[in-house]
Amino acid sequence: MTLALAGVTAAAVVNGGIPGTAGPAPEAPVVQPGPTYVYKVRAPLGQAAQTLLGRGYDVLEQREGDFLFVLGDSTTGGKLTGEGFTATVDEVLPAPQWTPPSRKSQSLDAGALEETYYGGYRTINAQWAHLDAVASQRPELTQVVDYGDSWKKSQGAGGYDLRAICITKKNAGDCALTPNAPKPRFFVMGQLHAREITTGDVAYRWIDHLLQGYGRDAEVTALLDTTEVWVVPIANPDGVNIVQQGGNSPRYQRKNANTTNGSNCSGTSSSHVGIDLNRNTDSHWGGEGTSPNPCDQSYKGPSANSEAETRALQSLWRNLYKDRRGPGNTDAAPADTTGVVISMHSYSNLVLFPWGWTTQYRTGNDAALRGMARDMASLAGGWQYGQPGEVLYNAAGATDDWVYDDLGVASFVWEVGPSSGACSGFFPAYSCQDSTFWPKTKSMLMYSAKKAANPYGGAPQGCPKVTNDDDVRIPDAGAAVTSAITVANCTANASATTQVEVHIKHTYRGDLTIDLVAPDGSAYRLKPSSSDSGDNIDTTYTVDVSSEARNGAWQLKVQDLYSSDSGYLDSWSLTL
């Protein structure tokens, strides 16, 4: 099938796919488009915003007070004004100067790892080669899963396998496609919207951070010992293939490449082929923030779940998570539900959570979701957070709504990137990944992954008291000593009222400091030194370690800070 799209002055060069598949037909050369305009449009939260979306404009996920932003060409401003909107030109993006990626092969040989476009962003070939390479190098930690086919591949028109990677310290039953998994699961995906290229790069770096950190970084090691991490670096490869064909001037394709509806879309401004995969699910499909026009960027598709990519993701999620929620808009998933799903988008520096289709209702787990969103936004340096309609606009049929709606799993969207400045927009310079985006998202990802064991804060179940009664001598005015307890087969996070029972024989207990050290290396002070001259310690301390996964090696650390008295750790117990 042939697509005639703007931004190309030569035949397509990165047709993509995997070995043994034919690439899509070369794309016909078309006239180079003019500059792309960004318009600032007055559309306050509520009906005005939804009216703007309903007119089919390419409305960006960006808000500034009462204003939204629309991507278009030189004629779009007049059209907005003619329909009663107040619109001014906010920015003019220069016309693309097309330069192809350096490689043209579909082969996933070693060279594919080096295939990039636009200054360093990895092509689909490179992303898929990366998955194969790390799986080969670290089989004890990884498993690559083919979870379906893209639309073009399902039509025999080239396209791609849909691929995910499971990362964990693999034991029996890990990474299996069953919701009855022994470990909680954290899931993150990038480039569901193809043009949001920052998100694919963050996913690539996240994979490397985990695999390079295991055995070296205490926090990463503890996470992978207790949690399955699933990554889909590119959820819309057909769409990304259209983006990357722009080379050093990536195309603005947002949707997938399905030409069944809207095959006459011009490829200019906001008139693109495809279905918006973040409006296509059956979670209130066709509601606010969606368009029935096949050429619009928010086109919902001909029916709910119509797209191969949508159905494949839903099947994968149902194989990873149990259904824990009732059908009502305010039904809550149980407090002991496990799992967190993150869909990374760009841009605007937002953390969003269900419901996205309306602000009339809050979910039954709103307090926990809102609290996690607040924490994520704080880790990012002060992003906004809320339901989409509270900070942006309502949008129905989104994947994050579907995950919570269908399964009850804690689900979020991150809009990664500032709304203005050098690193704003869909196509920030590749240097922004090192300087800005990875430093912010790394801490957010680690936080979210650790919350997968207990996102709703339910009381931990099935984790009995564990004791270590080996004697450990405490040197007089010497180095700290530790005693370990390893916890296994305990799902969810630890309790906010964790009990640490300590028995120490010592002739001057005021000399001692005592810390509980979590599996990720975080230390929690139980007792400071003091002038208490009494003998021995026989005390149970209560400590909030609810941010920590329970499974892993916990340590009690004791140190004698002053001379002339001595003793030993007799025993200690941990109830998480």
How many strand segments? 23
Could you estimate the helical fraction of the residues in percent?
A: 10-25%
The separation of the N and C termini measures 58 Å
Principal-axes shape call:
elongated
Strand arrangement, largest sheet? Answer: 7-8-10-9-11-14-12-13
CATH homologous superfamily of the largest domain, by name?
Zn peptidases
Description of the molecule:
Helices cover 22% and strands 23% of the residues. It is an alpha+beta fold. Mean pLDDT is 87; it is low at 1-32 and 97-108.
Map the helices and strands:
Elements: E1 36-42, H1 47-54, E2 58-64, E3 67-72, H2 76-82, E4 87-93, E5 116-117, E6 121-122, H3 124-137, E7 142-149, H4 151-154, E8 161-167, E9 185-189, H5 197-213, H6 218-226, E10 228-232, H7 237-244, H8 308-320, E11 340-345, E12 350-352, H9 366-379, E13 384-386, H10 388-391, H11 399-407, E14 410-415, H12 431-451, E15 466-468, E16 472-474, E17 481-487, E18 498-506, E19 512-517, E20 523-527, E21 537-543, E22 552-560, E23 567-575
Parallel strand pairs: 9-10, 9-11, 11-14, 12-13
Antiparallel strand pairs: 1-3, 1-4, 2-3, 5-6, 7-8, 8-10, 12-14, 15-23, 16-23, 17-22, 18-21, 18-23, 19-20, 19-22
Task: Summarize this structure as a short list of keywords or feature phrases.
about 575 residues; alpha+beta; Aminopeptidase; Jelly Rolls; eight-stranded mixed sheet; five-stranded antiparallel sheet; 12 helices
